[in-house]
Structures are given as structure tokens and as C-alpha cells.
Amino acid sequence: MHRSLVLYSEPADPDHFRDYYVNNHLPLVKNWPGPLAWRYSFDVAATEGEAPYFAVFEADFADAAAMAAARASPHGQRVAADVVNYATGGLVVIHYPVQDGTG
């Protein structure tokens, strides 16, 4: 499995971010062919001090090639292009193969 992780910094208008993200961006994600599963949270906390991020999003793909194909697809490009409509604080996108830690 391969995971894409989006770390969102504090936006200029947190209420707009939440509203737009839930009502506009996530419906795009919901119809995006490629991810096996996805999840998000606005309740980001640090074990000590302030959390450096406002929100997180994770998407799991079969492998890196599936993630690349999903991102390059017309729908994936629409998902990416929509980010400017709510993520005014910036973001970091990372991806990595997921290793099984059980057993």
C-alpha cells in the first residue's frame, strides 16, 4: 500500500476552511477514482505544545503507480486545483509506502 498525507497549516479563516472542505472539497475526493480509503481530521493535536498543523488528510492507494495515476487523472487534477479555494495557510504533501508493523 502507498499513502498520501496532506498536512494543512492554519488558514486565514478556519471556519471557511472547514465549511468549504466538508461541503465542496470532500465531495470531489469522494468521487475520485483511485484511493482505496481516505480519512481526515480537523482535531490535530501535539503531545506537547501547539500542533504545527490545522488539519490532516490521508489517502491510501494500492501502490505508488496507482497514486500517480490517480493524481494525474483529470479528476485528480480537479481535486488538486480546488485546494487554493480553502487552504490559505499552505500545506505539505508527502507520500510513502506503508509497511506492516504487525506480526
> What is the H/E order?
EHEEHHE
Strand order of the largest sheet: 2-3-1-4
Q: Structural class of the secondary elements? A: alpha+beta
Can you give the helix content as a percent range? 25-40%
Instruction: State the shape.
Output: globular
Mean pLDDT: 96
Unreliable residue runs: none
**Main β-sheet description:** 4 strands, antiparallel
Rg (CA only): 14 Å
Total number of helices: 3
Pfam families: EthD
InterPro entries: Dimeric_a/b-barrel, EthD_dom
Domain EthD: 10-88
Protein name: EthD family reductase
Write a brief structural summary:
By secondary structure, the protein is an alpha+beta fold. It is built from three helices and four strands, in the order E-H-E-E-H-H-E. The two termini are 17 Å apart.
Give your account of this protein's structure:
Pfam families: EthD. This is EthD family reductase. The structure is a single chain. This protein is α+β, with helices and mostly antiparallel strands. It has three helices and four strands. A four-stranded antiparallel β-sheet has the order 2-3-1-4. The longest helix has 17 residues.
